[in-house]
Amino acid sequence: MNFELNLSIEELKKRTHKDYLIRKPMLDKDAKEYLDLSSGDKEALKHLVKAAQYANIIFMKQDNELNIPFMKYLEENKDNEAIQLTKILFDAQLGITGIDSESNKVILLKSVKELDGKAFYPSDITKEELQSILKQMLKDSETEEVKKILSQRTIVKRNGKKLYALDYTEAFKEEFNKIADELELAAKTSTNKDFNEYLILQAKALRENNPMLDAQADKKWASLQDTPLEFTISREQYADLLTGTVVEDNELKQLLDKNNIMPLSKDSIGIRVGIVNKKGTQDLLKVKHFLPLMAENMPLKERYEQNISSENDNLQTMADVDIVALRGDEGSYRGGITIAQNLPNNDKLSLTIGGGRRNVYHRQVRTSNSPEAEERRKKRLRATLNPELHKYYNPEADHWFTIGHENVHSLGPKSGTEALGKYKNIIEENKADMGSLALLDVLCENGVYTPEEKKQILVTFGANAFLKAKPELSQAHRVRTVMQTYFFIKEGAIKVNNEGIIDLDTDKMISAARKMLTEIIEVQLSQDYIKGENYVNKYFQWTKDFEIMAEKLKETDKSLNGIIITPLADFLIKE
To answer: Cβ(361)–Cβ(320) under 8 Å?
Structure first.
């Protein structure tokens, strides 16, 4: 197969330069965290890292049908400079298509377009054709097949004029079995009984087409609290923008409702491997005691059930993790990378069988800043933030805010948000942010944060409230940033002068967050796609203030993307 590169040699050199492609190093091979492990856990970690490698293959197959052949082409033609540089970008974003921090599409191969359905669906299908086919299949009483097609764990293929679904355990049978083999080997030497039980359950779930096995593994994983090692198969739904569009067709939505079918966006597979940091985890657990209080202070709480009740918080565990490897969806650097996760998501079966949720925080992602990165941060603050507020800016406060964000994912409506379609993730991420701020007074009053720390959280959040470019609707995290910043400006909590200097009214920030959080929960409770669409469109406004700030941010920070560096994982793979 012949491939024609899309980027010029000049563009490739620019995008791979250290000023534009930042390096994010994970644990080194001589890290104390690794050296302090028992011999059994070291051996288990080796197998977990080997298991994680297969997530790259799965993710690339889910992302674009040309990813694997293009990767092989790049590997076979290493003598060409343009191909060498393209391979660096390909490895960073784990695919032919990606996006950078200025919302530019990064497409490495000519004649390729990024598809809403990625490779979860046939590459030539449109949302209109998908809707039409599903309507006809339901009218032909093919209800069970439609349910599978709209499941979060299937790849959809054509069958003449109809479609059929292939479960992940079939579509990725080879990779799933190899992961399962490594998990079973890890369980033989790992020193923690609960962790080993989880590994065995997860291995079994990978080998069989049985969603209940996934649920049992998820339930066990979410209960883990005192384990030396961390291993997660994450299943997030941000990439698939096609499944959610089926609710846009009124006739199809009525048919789906009649047949009790809830469309669920496809899971992108990622794997995280790490070593649990005991001190960091102990700090996180200090907040756990206050989860019922946070639940009690959520707006409109009497109108819905949430994962954390005001009486019981036993179904929430937390871990701060030193990262060894991020692979697949976890490690695809596309304009950014996650610093924490709250899983399983509300669509997962484990939450219906008594399972809880687990927050995992990525230490190296949030702390691994080079001297160059630190200088970029200082330069940005000097150029954009009221000097009187500089003393309150604290990078650690961003971590405190993230702790609130992840915990609020467990608060608010427990179910029904899938009806919001492609706007579900944007609205949910906005909820988590606003809840983190809205509950600050409650946490401060109860001694979790001092008044000084509360102000640091608010100022650090406000100083980071602007982006380098208007995002696309597919970028849920960035769209929600624009929405809340626009809302705060309208409420007088954030102000931008003509020179691009941010000023903040921290008292108004909390009241504004509470007001926006209430609106968000109203939308989630409506389970109405149109209300969700109208809500996003109302606040996703890119105004003059945003343009002023975007230009200033570009002047102070050239970085466009990043790449994960994993020296310990690379060392263990070779053993």
So the answer is: yes
